[in-house]
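re: the backbone from monday

yeah here it is again, tokenized this time
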């Protein structure tokens, strides 16, 4: 007899299905119908776990937030500021390479159009991620590691370069390992902003 999947296992499958839909067709094509097709179940089966498309997207955003927190956790385990920043860079690019969807979400207004709740959730996730990175830069400045830049500017240059690289990777049909560029770009960031 086949074991029934737990709610968490099914939600993980939904996350994976959403990733595939975004990667193949874009965020605007995410719907309970498309997710059900990907999973080989009926649309009503999806409603056992999510009452609406909005709820499904909010769960998806929660999942992304958890992944970003894991990246920050790995970085915090490193001994110094440089290693922490390098780890975030590498792990973020690996996450994008693995899921292939983060740049599409960040640049897609479809995710939050007409929904203050989804917009606020996305904003909270990105601001939370940046806040932790800013703390690392602040610590580095206190230790004299950086030229005299404002921490907010450092965060924007740092995260902006990751987003820009991710976008370049996507428009070039993901034809190279994104994570292979982490050391190259981080080392150039280091040359420009570290003492």
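seq for it, each position gets an aa:
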């Amino acid at each position: 007899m086949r074991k029934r999947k737990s709610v968490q296992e099914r939600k993980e499958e939904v996350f994976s299905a959403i990733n595939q839909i975004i990667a193949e067709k874009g965020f605007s094509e995410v719907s309970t119908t498309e997710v059900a097709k990907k999973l080989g179940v009926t649309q009503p089966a999806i409603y056992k776990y999510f009452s609406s498309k909005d709820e499904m997207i909010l769960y998806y955003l929660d999942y992304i937030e958890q992944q970003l927190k894991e990246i920050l956790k790995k970085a915090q385990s490193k001994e110094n500021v440089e290693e922490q920043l390098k780890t975030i860079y590498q792990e973020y690019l690996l996450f994008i390479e693995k899921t292939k969807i983060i740049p599409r979400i960040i640049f897609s207004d479809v995710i939050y159009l007409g929904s203050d709740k989804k917009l606020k959730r996305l904003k909270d996730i990105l601001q939370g991620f940046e806040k932790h990175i800013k703390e690392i830069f602040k610590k580095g400045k206190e230790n004299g590691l950086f030229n005299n830049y404002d921490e907010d500017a450092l965060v924007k240059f740092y995260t902006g370069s990751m987003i820009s690289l991710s976008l370049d990777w996507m428009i070039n049909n993901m034809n190279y390992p994104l994570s292979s560029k982490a050391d190259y770009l981080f080392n150039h960031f280091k040359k420009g902003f570290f003492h």
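The chain has one domain: 7-193. Residues 116-142 form the longest helix (27 residues).
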